[in-house]
């Protein structure tokens, strides 16, 4: 049965990932006449699109009263994107690139603050509607601040043409429905898999689901870097992390409050906040992101394995 549930998770995540990419494509086409710097496009439109699997997972997990799957995936995705995904970029793109202090410092500090708030809200083991509302407000405030403090564009603004608007609306809605269905299948598979192998749901979601749901960010970011669109890639990575540590994790409990495992949630969120502070210092000090800084970020991600496995085994 373990093989069956692994298959369900892979099929569900695969459907959600493919559909989320289609939803992004059609939403981009609908943005007729949009002329916004690529960093902000990545921070908002691409980030929301590539984060659809996490948002769907948050809602499905909360409605089914499996809050650990939501928190594990959302916090895990935040960490995965700023360490694993960002660390792999110069390696997979096969060249280093200049990040820019102003593109990393403020987003890192905002996300670190959001994770600290997550730890505070979840210390009692309950994830309620008020908690979700607070996190939703943090996303709105953080997004507003980043738009207000956005760096000057180093690349031309993007103008996206649009044709057959009704078709693109229908296709985007259909893609979003598939994202929801895929996330539902993946959550069911994760629940059964965690019970079958005896591993806490939180850890399965943090290291398993988070990697799967972070694949859109990795694909989009690598493609953007190889195309010379650095701002688009960095904006997507930090925009998705901003979403995961606020809107994504909070939207499920806003609909359906749920219980969570407090020690794992608090430890991972606080460790994540500390990781973001390290990244802020590292990327501000070495503005050239290359294989060495990439390996440093991968080492930060690897450090979460012994930390959470130790807490989860207590």
State the main characteristics.
single chain; 314 residues; mainly alpha; A middle domain of Talin 1; two-stranded antiparallel ribbon; two-stranded antiparallel sheet; 13 helices; 80% helix
What does this entry look like structurally?
- The chain has helices at 2-30, 38-50, 52-63, 67-92, 101-121, 129-148, 165-197, 201-213, 215-226, 230-255, 262-285, 291-302, 304-312, and strands at residues 97-98, 126-127, 258-259, 288-289.
- It is mainly α and 314 residues long.
- It has a single domain, classed as A middle domain of Talin 1, CATH 1.20.1420.30.
- The longest helix has 33 residues, at 165-197.
- It starts with a helix and ends with a helix.
Topology pattern, helix = H, strand = E: HHHHEHEHHHHHEHEHH
Compute the separation of the termini in Å. 27 Å
* Average predicted local confidence, pLDDT: 79
Q: Helix share of residues? A: over 70%
Q: How many H/I helical runs? A: 13
**Largest sheet features:** 2 strands, antiparallel
In short:
This protein is an all-alpha fold and 314 residues long. 80% of the residues lie in helices and 3% in strands. The strands form two sheets. It has a two-stranded antiparallel sheet with strand order 1-4. It has a two-stranded antiparallel sheet with strand order 2-3.
Helix-strand blueprint:
Elements: H1 2-30, H2 38-50, H3 52-63, H4 67-92, E1 97-98, H5 101-121, E2 126-127, H6 129-148, H7 165-197, H8 201-213, H9 215-226, H10 230-255, E3 258-259, H11 262-285, E4 288-289, H12 291-302, H13 304-312
Antiparallel strand pairs: 1-4, 2-3
